[in-house]
Input
Amino acid sequence: MIALGEFAAWIALPVAIWGAVMGFAGGKQGRGDLVLSAERSVYAVFALVTLASAALIYAFMTDAFQYWYVYNYSSRELDPFFKFSGLWAGQRGSLLFWALNLAFFSAITVWMNRAKNREFMPWVSGILLSVLAFFLTITLFITPPFEQLAFTPTDGRGLNPQLQNYWMTIHPPTLYLGFTAFTVPFAFGLASLLSGRLDARWIQLTRKWILTSWFFLSVGIIFGMRWAYEELGWGGYWFWDPVENASLLPWLTATAFLHSIMIQENRGMLKVWNMSLLCLTFLLTIFATFLTRSGLIESVHSFAQDLTIAFTFLGFMAVVGAICAALIWSRRKEMVSERQFESFFSRESAFLLNNLVLLGAAFAVTWGTLFPLLTEGLTGSKVAVGPPFFNQVNIPIGLVLLALMGIGPVIAWRRASRRNLRKNFIWPTVIGLGVFLALLASGMRHMYALLTFSIAAFVLFIIVNEFVKGTRARARIEGENPFTAFIHLVRRNRRRWGGYIVHIGVVIMFVGFGGAAFDQEVRQSMEPGDTVEIQSPFGHTYSLRYDGLSTQQGQNMWQMIALFSVEKDGVPDGTITTERRLYTAPPQPVTQVGIRSTLGEDLYVILSNLDEQVGIGNNPDHQRATFQILVNPLVPWIWYGGLVLALGTLIALWPGAGSAPSRAVAAGGAGGSRRDPDPDPDGGPDGPSSGPGETGPGTQEGPDGGPAPTDREREPVPAGAPS
Amino acid sequence: MTALIAAISLAGLVVLWILFPLLKGLEAPMSGDDVELNELLHRKKVALLGLRDAEYDFQSGKLEEEDYRALKGSLATEALAAMDEEARLLAQRASTGPEGRAGRRAEIEAEIAELRAELREGKICPSCGLPNARNARYCSDCGTELGRGTPASPTPATG
Output
């Protein structure tokens, strides 16, 4: 079984190369047989890589320690759940897993477009298979997951305990889905360059893919933050670690891209820019994978130090970059903007500013991440820039972005008049200033926090007001109750309103980030019975009494669990436990943070050191330990904001008519005779044939609340409306 | 031995699967959808979506009246141009296409002509995009109030 899987991986590579050649040749010569062969190759590669991945999982499940990869990332005692996740636990498996994800998305793409958008598909198949061939080459020749040892060890070395955490089992696959999903829009963009079809069609076709990728990237990053917060025991969720940065980079450029394609769609501008952003984002997904898995830069995630893989990745990126640049250059005359920017005060320039700021952030993060490498190359010693650098640069950038999230939705296209600016920004500015002054009066002096909260109020007011205005208008026009009106409003233009909901989520997350300015920390060595007090920035005082340490044996580990009784302002408020685990395979201590969340803050207790040798006997005389106790205000808001963000993205993504215009206008509009009351079932904005659901409001009431005209066949004037 | 047989059969199956189109002359469709028509429908769709957004922005005070009119005019022109071309394309096809389709084409053509006329003279519903008669006060589809006495006649396509 395992050998067959390995064999499947070996056949997948030539099939991918063959298919890529067929795709390009078929596209060039317009030969359908070659294209069919290419598309069948996509399916074949998907099947073969699936088989190979299944074989690797099987090797983990059956403790096949004769395989180097299984031996190094598993052990007999390991929970089966973590054995399964062994597929992406280390470099070797995760590159195969990358190929699996990409093969999956490629197969879906080819299947969905088997009867439409055919002019793109030869190229799309060719590009997807080329990327697949690259990853298969690395998997097979540089990081072989099926490499065998000369003997069969009796047990494996075990999985890094920090990875034995449920967030860690879902965080990498989610990010990988985000990285790989972006290859599809990249393939379509490049296909449009190759085929010369340079209108906004490729954007139309791939908008959902871009959003899908963005969704997985966002959620994956948030999962990673959650993992860091719970598992690393450093008291925070983001450390500007190279791998965190690597995942943030494509997210930043993908966010920029998501916004700037709207300008191309609406105004026919920024075509070269969009294409460049697309290529850049794709390169950054590759770069992120490379940085995560090459171990080039020290990081909590990296384990390998093999430079072959680094040079292979860099070579691939250089080739892809060169091809993109050459293609864009050769088509530059066909991608001229149809319009010019008219005014700085316009939605276009808000979008452009958003793009520049996001790219600025991406540049700063790249610079800071690669800085150790550069200094090592130039001076011979690695100099890492720490979180202070990143915070100094990125906090102001983040605040500008935050403000733009409020400005963008309400500023006018083309040219905003004074009246427009006055009308839309006076009240939000007043609210923002009010919050600023109120917080200042209440004693808050941290400038960034003050700005974060007041800008957040400014943005939130604008977006909520948009919803209120829209709902009111709809309720009035349709005679619906506010709730129904709200639902219909969102359903009818999910792209717009889903986007606004994402913005609300981001605002909530920013408020959570702002809380970091007020983190409280106490570090103390304690004996059972000792009490420590910590002040919450919200005014109350926690008092924690160390009740003692108990030692017990868990699966594959020893657990030392410290128990605290908590009092809040003198009132008993339950208990909290915090753990230190000593894993047996591999032998390594890991802290398991005790977190107690309320709406406003987290009480966060770390068992940082056992000051005395703790025996198994649970002797209370030998239980002195050092604890770090933190109050992290507003951290829960980050997770709530993340949920709202995910919800908003799903609303914008949901298939159906809400994000597409109506066919009714095209086919049934005038007569309405062929109107279909159901929203487009197979949906998506990718075809002009998308459904008419948008034009069919839920209720059929007339303007005055009475029944709507029943004869909607030929008469465009409603009964009762005098001509 | 079993593994060898399994491997050989797997390889054989895959090779057969991907080479079959070349051996048997099977072809993938190279233009499955109607590229030309799709293009027009897409242009129309973008213009109508733009109209909807412009209307929303105007209603909510984000767009000045002057800009709104200009934008609406250009977008309506664009939509009209796409519709004109679509009609021409369909008419052309109908004249060259099979007999049986001609009737249906004519019907579509008539409908489009009607729609076009309405677009030229009438009001486009801000909320659902349905073209209504010039003097309509409410949209006949969704009931949105269309505003009194302001026939938003866009710049005609022909200039």
